[in-house]
Amino acid sequence: MRTMDVIAAVLLVVGGLNWGLVGTANFDLVATIFGAGSILAKLVYTLVGIAAVYQAASLKGIQRRWNVQPAMA
Length: 73
Fold this sequence. Notes:
single chain, mainly alpha
């Protein structure tokens, strides 16, 4: 499952950078590359959303696999 973790992390970085560009420069890199409203752009947005749900749902398991101790609050 580490492969899925890496893929999800890469997709989340892509999504985060894209949203950072949208917020700071009003520039949507995904739409620029693939075309606004195109099937490919929608696919990228969908994959980023699925990656976010995957990461949120499997956070505890990821921490166990990577031997990361959650910070104590």
